[in-house]
Amino acid sequence: MSTPLNRTLLKVIVLGDIAVGKTSLINRYVHKKFNQQYKATIGADFVTRELQIDGRLVSLQIWDTAGQERFHSLGPAFFRGADCCVLVYDVNVHKSFEALQTWRDEFIKQTDISNPARFPFVVIGNKIDQDGGARRMVDEKRAKDWCGSIKSGPSASSIPYYETSAKDDINVDDAFYNIAIAALSHDRSQELYFESITETGSLSEIVEQQNRGCPC
After folding, report:
1. Buried b / exposed e across 63-93, counting CB within 10 Å, b at 16+?
2. Helices (DSSP H) in 54-129: which residue ranges?
């Protein structure tokens, strides 16, 4: 029988408009794969990846969401216990960038955060690979200016910003590593002792466990 490991479980919520590449980013980071065929996420589900940060074992539970209005009906059960919120947009679609504020406001509303300026948010501008940047509609400076206008995390500094390509695997690992660091800064992080962890799941499974009382 293996010795139980001391791990920190972190819950990360990924939000953004439909087709900005949320699922592709998560699959690239966790499974090291990219699927050219687009398939919309229905509702929400999660995957888990383990990593070490400064000698600390971290289980990063990443929740993928549908970028549609019906997602909002998932309610507090989805957001409960979040340690970091990642806002994703497509650098080639201006509307998806403009929607970042709406997604941030929705997260704050659903979680009823007492001090939003102290909660860790991270912004990702995805799909920088398209046409060598020729199709780009939102430049890096504008995105950074928006991030700089909003305070985030325990130090109340500007929202961290990263540009990525899930397709070409550009900056994805670095972005998620820093997302994990941001999540670690949240005081809800909890130390858990267990021998194994579920690698994938769905919102319905989690809600069912919460309703009947998880024995773990």
Report:
1. bbbbbeeebeebeeebbeebbbbbbbbbbbb
2. 76-79, 94-98, 100-111
Q: Which of 116, 89, 94 is nearest to 105 (CA)?
A: 116
Question: Distance between CA 62 and CA 52 in Å, rounded?
Answer: 16
Tens-binned pLDDT, residue by residue, of the chain (216 aa)? 555 557 899 999 999 999 999 999 999 999 999 877 655 554 567 899 999 998 889 999 999 876 555 555 566 777 889 999 999 999 999 999 999 999 999 899 888 788 999 999 999 999 999 988 889 999 999 999 999 999 998 888 999 999 999 999 999 999 999 999 999 998 654 444 333 333 445 444 444 444 444 433
Query: Domains of the chain, with CATH numbers?
Result: 5-212 (3.40.50.300)
- HSE at residue 50, side-chain half, CA atoms within 13 A, is 12
pTM: 0.82
Q: What is the 3-state secondary structure (H, E, C) of 7-69?
A: EEEEEEEEECCCCCCHHHHHHHHHHCCCCCCCCCCCCEEEEEEEEEECCEEEEEEEEEECCCH
